[in-house]
Design brief:
Length: 111
């Protein structure tokens, strides 16, 4: 059973930055896909950014140019650098590897 643990969420003003981290209990190089989803109150969970099975990255249109996904295979870590944050980015952010999920970390952006 793979365990994923997110950290780095918090409260930030609009225009600010946060960096989310996801620590995996297994070697992440074995996973074809990994990345971040988010879920805002009253909304469906949506993909934010991910590494796809063909090795490319995929971003939601709403975060392109502001968010950057990265990973460190040696440390089994996945990151999400979030810049120019907006109030509409407020959500619980979840890390995933293939079909495994973390518990989520809250990101709140104040206007």
């Amino acid at each position: 059973q793979v365990q994923l643990s997110e950290s780095g969420g918090g409260l930030v003003q609009a225009g600010g930055s946060l960096k989310l981290s996801c620590a995996a209990s297994e070697n992440i190089h074995i996973f074809n896909t990994m990345g971040w989803y988010r879920q805002a109150p009253g909304k469906q969970r949506e993909l934010v950014a991910a590494f796809t099975s063909d090795g490319t990255t995929n971003y939601a249109d709403s975060v392109k140019g502001r968010f950057t996904i990265s990973r460190d295979n040696d440390k089994n870590m996945i990151y999400l650098q979030m810049d120019s944050l907006k109030p509409e980015d407020t959500a619980i952010y979840y890390c995933f590897c293939q079909w495994y999920w973390g518990q989520g970390t809250q990101v709140t952006v104040s206007s």
